[in-house]
Amino acid sequence: DRPLVLIAGPCVIENEVATMRCAERLMTICNGVSIPLIFKASYDKANRTSVNSFRGPGMKDGLKILKKVKEALGVPVLSDIHSIEQVEPAAEVLDVVQIPAFLCRQTDLVVAAARSGKVVNIKKGQFLAPWDMENVAGKAVSTGNDNIILTERGVSFGYNNLVSDMRSFPILRKIGYPVVFDATHSVQLPGGLGGSSGGQREFVEYLGRAAVATGIDGIFMEVHDDPEKALCDGPNSVKLEDLPALLKKLKAIDAIVK
Amino acid sequence: DRPLVLIAGPCVIENEVATMRCAERLMTICNGVSIPLIFKASYDKANRTSVNSFRGPGMKDGLKILKKVKEALGVPVLSDIHSIEQVEPAAEVLDVVQIPAFLCRQTDLVVAAARSGKVVNIKKGQFLAPWDMENVAGKAVSTGNDNIILTERGVSFGYNNLVSDMRSFPILRKIGYPVVFDATHSVQLPGGLGGSSGGQREFVEYLGRAAVATGIDGIFMEVHDDPEKALCDGPNSVKLEDLPALLKKLKAIDAIVK
Amino acid sequence: DRPLVLIAGPCVIENEVATMRCAERLMTICNGVSIPLIFKASYDKANRTSVNSFRGPGMKDGLKILKKVKEALGVPVLSDIHSIEQVEPAAEVLDVVQIPAFLCRQTDLVVAAARSGKVVNIKKGQFLAPWDMENVAGKAVSTGNDNIILTERGVSFGYNNLVSDMRSFPILRKIGYPVVFDATHSVQLPGGLGGSSGGQREFVEYLGRAAVATGIDGIFMEVHDDPEKALCDGPNSVKLEDLPALLKKLKAIDAIVK
Amino acid sequence: DRPLVLIAGPCVIENEVATMRCAERLMTICNGVSIPLIFKASYDKANRTSVNSFRGPGMKDGLKILKKVKEALGVPVLSDIHSIEQVEPAAEVLDVVQIPAFLCRQTDLVVAAARSGKVVNIKKGQFLAPWDMENVAGKAVSTGNDNIILTERGVSFGYNNLVSDMRSFPILRKIGYPVVFDATHSVQLPGGLGGSSGGQREFVEYLGRAAVATGIDGIFMEVHDDPEKALCDGPNSVKLEDLPALLKKLKAIDAIVK
User: Fold this and answer.
1) pLDDT of residue C190
2) B22 and B225 Cβ atoms separated by less than 8 Å
3) Are A230 and A224 in contact (CB under 8 A)?
4) Can you give the three-state secondary structure of B7-48, one letter per residue?
5) HEC states along chain C?
6) Please, are residues D30 and D6 in contact by the beta-carbon 8 Å criterion?
7) Contact A235, A198 (CB under 8 A)
8) pLDDT for B232
């Protein structure tokens, strides 16, 4: 078992300056605690609660920014795709192509992403059992590409709530691919604010520590230097200044269980 | 309140002959009980459990068959779309364009479907509360098209199981659009057979009667003349020969509550 | 299948006059719609949310009042017991001895209630699957008394919420005993008001109609002439004046499905 | 924050020799890893799935055995009570009186247990939200005894399944009392074997590590030297020989988060 990896970044690309600055700070923080970083940011939030929500700069401009981040900092970058047409341009820039949770059962999208030859991070749908991901992974692997990551981000638990089932990690790992815990989307309260999703940032640390203690390959967190002002998913984003202390604990727990 | 409408047909278009024959039998049955029919069949099952599952004839051939059914029998037809590109060709044939449950949060798809000017049937995601559909409907209505149908098809209840919350119907109806109960997908056991979804056909009648008793606008059922041999969703499809007796009861219950 | 029976009354015995008056009104209403009545009232609410909640007159005084109701009106009476010691005195008065949902797994209590020879109404725990009730019923039947009623009252669905799974009724009926739907506790929001349980009275009618449409033996409802002033479970009690119209619909639906 | 405590022992007192031997082995193991032990064993399993299940030696003989264990080994002992009458004799022997999860809402039982002056360990019902335990604790504290422990043991998640919500620990701790995680009952599959509950022993370690990583006061585990032969809850009991390695990891994680 290799040590824990961090996938982190802002929920959405707000603009080039903010994105670059966030990536730089994350690099510094990760170097400080010796945790490898994959930088994550979305160019389009395609499934927001309301039609009026901010969606990002779009694919073309967004990928340009991610390319700059990648070249300037030498950090691998990850973003999510929402249609087959996006796979090719995205794969030219991205190191990891991500399938959103709501789309994880769309056969053609998973297959197209896998055909790109890139690492594919498949988020587990909120409506799936952990063992259901074996068939989902099978769709990607049918292309010959088995560079797959499986990400747990909570499962539906009544209305407007998710629960993180810690049994999910050993079950997912048995499927045979690296397993990541998305600690910030897992504390979302979907639709919980009426016109947008609520979140419980205060639980990110607890869930993150718990998941790492089960033995996982990576942890995923959306971060922001001022979550109250974030244009997307602020309520469940981690404040950048809180990250170093959290990562130190995660790394220490990781060392014990591996 | 107008009397109950039936949306029914095979899960997937298996071939032209079988589809036409199914539609004819449904027309005869519906005429016999005076229930208006909208014929439903999918040309592509884009989110099957396994990559090896049968998916259907594809959009082009499938729409051709649906067009023939529509012209031969004079019945309105409904099918589901999976990408923005499909909206235009689908809208040329279909009377009702359907958004699959897993895709109900994809803003661009909902907006594109609504822009077609057709009636849009939006299936409620298994991961959503009934009141969450107000924002979903709002995405469609933002185009100026308010010919919307909202369809309940069960909500995640633990792993590999759905529950049909009967409170959902009065809540959905308050949003202001016709509400349909999908009585056959609601008895699915998602992923319950390992490589495919299981189903509990024996509960369709009970859930259907219950939903109609709450006062709804339509009922959705996938049917097959021999469900054991169906190429998709057989375990939860209703046998055609059982349909007349069931519809008679539904119609009688509907008359009491309206 | 015999026609629907009603089990109804106030949540708790508030005093003799109010209890008698409620029973009289229920008798009049039930005679008007030809539905047999079993009068229900609790002498002690032993598991309220908070230690400060009103609990009732206690067993001795409560049973005295129930005896008066029974003798004055000739109506069978039902109440719930909470310990083995209560079985004997309760069985002297009651026609139906009820096991509360939280206590349905307490072997000695179920066995003692069954040994009284009375009809035993066992409420299904919010934490049980419908098929789990076969073993619960088996505890009662082990005494030789098979006069058992099984009552569904909702199942835990996330936090502070219950859902009524309509599949439960055919499953429970297969166990072999009459099945009742508790339409008022099923709309409780357990602990939903902080210091007490909330409730959604507006859904009683919908859930009641739905359950009856599946084909059940009886319906259970807590009623009050002024639910806002009820000393227990007001938020989910049915207003007495709304009952006749509701019962008429239930009776009509019942006639269709039996 | 004080270091982690272990509450452990066999599910049920099978006989004096086996119970004493189990306690001795636990003492040795706990001394080896410097974790304080509270010895747990039940004298009566009052709510087994089936009426035919083994229940234990009964209160009188069971308490005698627990007294011997306590005096011989100098270890504090815990057991659960099921009626008010049991409180007095149980409190003469026990250091910690435990309220079973199904009974945690029985006001009189909680109050009587608290009146004994002993430490009261209240298990959180499978049907309760973590914040609901504030009112439950309030019933005990109303007696003036605030030596309370709150134990999480999973929450209903669909049928025949429990999930351990790791958010529960920080929420329960805010109520103000020590919080324990019951790592073996949390992996029960209630009623999952038809005539008895199933269990997933393989997940105890994962859930235990996760819970400790959130920062808790104690961990509760049922153990057996040969779980396959245990007379109760074998499927979710930890094999004694596996305990030392597990405890070492828990202790190391505990040290990081406190």
Assistant:
1) 87
2) yes
3) yes
4) EEECCECCCHHHHHHHHHHHHHHHHHHCCCEEEECECCCCCC
5) CCCCEEEEECCECCCHHHHHHHHHHHHHHHHHHCCCEEEECECCCCCCCCCCCCCCCCHHHHHHHHHHHHHHHCCCEEEECCCHHHHHHHHHHCCEEEECHHHCCCHHHHHHHHHCCCEEEEECCCCCCHHHHHHHHHHHHCCCCCCEEEEECCEECCCCCEECCCCHHHHHHHHCCCEEEECCHHHEECCCCCCCCEECHHHHHHHHHHHHHHCCCEEEEEEECCHHHCCCCHHHCEEHHHHHHHHHHHHHHHHHHC
6) yes
7) yes
8) 87
Share above pLDDT 70 across residues of chain C, in percent, rounded to a whole number: 100
Shortest distance, CA B96 to any CA of chain C (angstroms): 28
Query: Mean pLDDT lowest for which of A247-251, D8-12, D195-199?
Result: D195-199
Kindly report the CA angle at A140 between A135 and A146, in degrees rounded to 5?
A: 110
**Which residues on chain C are in Cβ contact (under 8 Å) with D46?**
106-108
- CB distance D94 to D79 below 8 Å: yes
| Number of neighbours of residue A45 by Cβ within 10 angstroms | 21
Nearest CA among D184, D191, D192, D188 for reference residue D246: D184
> How many CB atoms lie under 10 A from the CB of residue B198?
16
b/e burial code for range B183-193 (CB count within 10 A of at least 16 → b): bbbbbbbbbbe
pLDDT band for position C18 (50/70/90)? Answer: very high
**Residue-by-residue pLDDT tens, chain A, 258 positions:** 899 999 999 999 999 999 999 999 999 999 999 999 999 999 999 888 888 888 999 999 999 999 999 999 999 999 999 999 999 999 999 999 999 999 999 999 999 999 999 999 999 999 999 999 999 999 999 999 999 999 999 999 999 999 999 999 999 999 999 999 999 999 998 887 777 788 899 999 999 999 999 999 999 999 999 998 988 888 889 999 999 999 999 999 999 999
Contact indicator for A205, A246 with CB cutoff of 8 Å: yes
Tens of pLDDT, residue by residue over A61-93, are: 999 999 999 999 999 999 999 999 999 999 999
| C162 → chain A, closest CA residue | A158
The answer to whether B225 and B25 are in contact (CB under 8 A) is yes
- List the subunits that have 3+ CB pairs under 8 angstroms with A: B, C, D
- The dihedral region occupied by B98, where left means phi > 0, alpha psi between -120 and 50, and beta the remainder, is beta
Residue B211, classed as helix, strand or coil, is: helix
Q: Chain C interface residues facing chain B, Cβ-Cβ under 8 Å?
A: 157, 163-167, 169-170, 187, 200, 202-203, 206-207, 209-215, 249, 252-253, 256-257
**Which pTM does this prediction carry?**
0.96
Q: How many CB atoms lie within 10 A of CB A188?
A: 22
User: What is the count of residue pairs from A and C with beta carbons less than 8 Å apart?
Assistant: 11
The pair of structure tokens assigned to D148 is 């309370």
> Is there a contact between A110 and A99 (Cβ–Cβ < 8 Å)?
yes
With H, G, I as helix, E, B as strand and everything else as coil, classify residue A146. coil
For C113, the token pair is 């209630």
What tens digit of pLDDT does each residue of B30-88 get? 999 999 999 999 999 988 888 888 899 999 999 999 999 999 999 999 999 999 999 99
Interface of D with B (CB under 8 A): 157-159, 161
pLDDT at A53: 87
Identify which of A203, A210, A252 has the shortest CB distance to residue D210.
A210
Element (H, E) at D88: helix D84-93
| C-alpha–C-alpha distance, residues D35 and D208, integer Å | 15
Q: Which two structure tokens, joined as six digits, stand for B31?
A: 């005429």
φ/ψ bin of A99: left (φ > 0), alpha (ψ from -120 to 50), beta (otherwise): beta
Could you give the 3-state DSSP secondary structure of residue B151?
strand
Dist CA A23 CA A29 (whole Å): 10
**D210 membership: H or E segment, kind and range:** helix D204-214
